[in-house]
Amino acid sequence: MRLSERDGREYRFVDAPRFREMVSAGTFLEWAEVYGNLYGVPKSQIADAMRRGQDVIIKPDIQGAATIKEKAPEALSIFLSPPSVRELERRLSQRMTESSETLQKRLETARHEMEEATRFDYVVVNHDGRIDEAVEEIESIISREHRRTPPHNTALW
Prior knowledge:
Blueprint: H1 16-24, E1 28-34, E2 37-42, H2 43-51, E3 56-57, H3 62-71, E4 75-76, E5 78-81, H4 85-95, H5 100-115, E6 122-125, H6 131-146, E7 153-156
Parallel strand pairs: 3-7, 4-7, 5-6
Antiparallel strand pairs: 1-2
Helix pairs in contact: 4-5
């Protein structure tokens, strides 16, 4: 957990042994270890939100997106992309949250992920200082998909 993060706000935090128990119990739609941290998407949270008629937004890595697509091929997928790897490197460097080794690993991963963007239904570019535009574009896509016949599943990842 980063200093600015709070349990239940950014994520729900559990310790590694409990997480492994949850994996064994089949609790997650998908899960992965990323940069030494364990992340998972609980099936129950998705089902609860969809029963309430809410859209579900999941932020997986490429591997997780592929797993979700396999399990829910009707789900809408949007790839959120930086304008370029160079811009991503600048952004990550400015955050100063990773060592240079971790930063290089993240950039290598990002290059690979950007090559996989064509597997998604949509690609939205997140330009520096223009996050509101990216949000508006995503909202427009979701709105358009609600009107589609037949509609995509409203789980978004």
